[in-house]
Design goal:
The protein is mainly alpha-helical and about 80 residues long. The protein is built from three helices and no strands. It has one domain.
């Protein structure tokens, strides 16, 4: 399957994709709440159910915004070889 057809498929089924991702997230948080022991935790945040899900989500957001900021700093400059002062 080519990447273009995959992107088109995902765009045409966006609602189903979002619902399935949210469902997986809810199941993971429920599994964390029900099956993971909180007796031997290393940090105070690990006592909360869903801590690692929230940590991963916020880390992804930080990576996205930092990469956009770096891109605007130098990569996304106009391609003009002559300085127009």
């Amino acid at each position: 399957m080519s990447i273009i057809r995959l992107i088109e498929f995902l765009r045409s089924n966006l609602r189903s994709l979002v619902i399935s991702c949210i469902s997986v997230l809810v199941l993971l948080v429920l599994a964390d709440w029900l099956f993971v022991s909180k007796a031997a935790v290393h940090t105070a945040g690990e006592r909360w159910f869903g801590f690692w899900s929230l940590f991963g989500f916020l880390s992804c957001l930080a990576i996205i915004f930092l990469s956009k900021w770096f891109g605007h700093l130098g990569i996304m400059k106009p391609e003009d070889y002559y300085d127009h002062d």
